[in-house]
Automatic annotation (TrEMBL):
Segments forming domain SGNH hydrolase-type esterase: 74-212
Molecular-function annotations in GO: phosphatidylcholine lysophospholipase activity
Protein name: Lipolytic protein G-D-S-L family
Keyword Signal included in the entry's annotation: yes
Keywords: Signal
Recorded superkingdom: Bacteria
Pfam families registered for this protein in UniProt: Lipase_GDSL_2
Signal peptide, first to last residue: 1-22
Amino acid sequence: MHRASFLGLILFLLIAPGLVQAQSVADPDPQRFVKEIDHFIRYDQKNSFPQKAVLFIGSSSIRLWKTHLAFPEIPVINRGFGGSHISDVLFYYEKLVKKYQPQTIVFYAGDNDIAAGKSVEQTVADFKTFVAKVKKDLPFTKIIYLPIKPSLLRWNFWPAMQKVNQVISNICAADSMLKYVDTASVLLDDSGKPDSTFFMEDGLHLNEKGYQKWNARLSPILNILNH
């Protein structure tokens, strides 16, 4: 092999992993949630929803959260749908976010994104798109970002998840309409690993004790923002 070609091959092999890692992962089909979204729509047609509410939006950590019991003095709307990516929240933004005109949004998503192979950059970019939509349509609405949680099942993804959390923490620190609330570190034990007592048997979803940790972190902040 010609020396130049050989050196070119070596260079490609060295940088190829980085190129592969930088490629975007295709978003999953948002139509897989049609039944769940239709259920929300039918519910809203039969029931009024509170004005100036706190909208909880995101994946299963939102869906399984008994938000109406956790924050009884605050008008809440829970629109979590399990397994969702940030891209799914974006797809259903008009139906699940904008229509409610919330005073505050509590956002938890990105967990499934990283676990599906999406990069830190892609996940952060999707969050930025969400923020931009809210700022355009709901300029007085504050967004509370709950960091991607450390879990037993997805502990191998934690380095990437931490990077997402750190980048978004910096974004929130520079914007008065965004707030980063650390609900991640409270789930770690003294050794810095996920505390199994806060999780269901699947090692991914929080149990009642885990949600109590989240409630304690979030409650005083919501009381300030919504009064």
